[in-house]
Design a protein that fits this description.
110 residues, elongated, mainly alpha
Length: 110
C-alpha cells in the first residue's frame, strides 16, 4: 500500500487501531465464553448449572454478555454488520445473547 497524503497515513493508522481493537475484544469474548463453559463443565456433575442460580455463574454470564456487546459494537462501528455469523462462529449461548447490552449496577440491587 502506497500512502500519498497525510490523510492516507491517518486513515491507515485508524484502520490499524480498529483491527487491533477488534482482535483484543475478540479474545476477551473468547476468554469470557471459555470461562463460562469451564464453569458449566465443572458444575455438570450435579444439577445443570443454569438451574443452580449460582451467583458466580451469573457473573460469568454477565461478563460474557458485556464482552459480546463490546465486540459487536466495535465490529459494527468498523463496518462489519454480520453479527449473526459471529454468534454462530463463537457458539454464543442463548442466555448470553439475551443479556447483550443489558447492564446495571449491583448497588441498585441492594
Amino acid at each position: 500500500m502506497r500512502l500519498r497524503t497525510g490523510l492516507d497515513v491517518l486513515e491507515y493508522e485508524i484502520r490499524q487501531e480498529q483491527v487491533a481493537t477488534i482482535g483484543r475484544l475478540a479474545q476477551e469474548l473468547r476468554d469470557a465464553l471459555d470461562a463460562l463453559d469451564a464453569f458449566d463443565r465443572r458444575a455438570s456433575g450435579c444439577k445443570t448449572a443454569a438451574d443452580t442460580g449460582d451467583p458466580q455463574r451469573a457473573r460469568l454470564v454477565d461478563a460474557a454478555a458485556y464482552a459480546l456487546w463490546n465486540f459487536a459494537v466495535q465490529r459494527e462501528c468498523s463496518g462489519f454488520r454480520e453479527t449473526d455469523q459471529v454468534l454462530k462462529d463463537y457458539a454464543v449461548p442463548a442466555e448470553v445473547r439475551a443479556k447483550i447490552g443489558a447492564i446495571w449496577s449491583r448497588e441498585l440491587d441492594s
